[in-house]
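call fold target=CopG family transcriptional regulator
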Amino acid sequence: MKTLTISVDDETEKLLERAVAGGRFASDSEVIREALELWEKRKTAEAAEVEWLRREIQAGFDSGEPKPLDREAFFAEVKSRRAKRA
């Protein structure tokens, strides 16, 4: 395992100290490792969400020309679906 030296501000130092003092982590290194794992998971989830949005946008483009919205019919449908769930 490689050893790194990092600089942190006072607030981050206090966060690390509290995390270790709380007993969940044995060392600052464990805190940093978990933080990096969570960061990586978040980046992966964000990338998946962006890809999903791209597909949904493309599906919208591929669905054809927009059609006028009948507001009364739309809201009647929404109310009907809500009533069925209740």
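return ok
The chain has a mean pLDDT of 96. Residues 10-64 form one domain.
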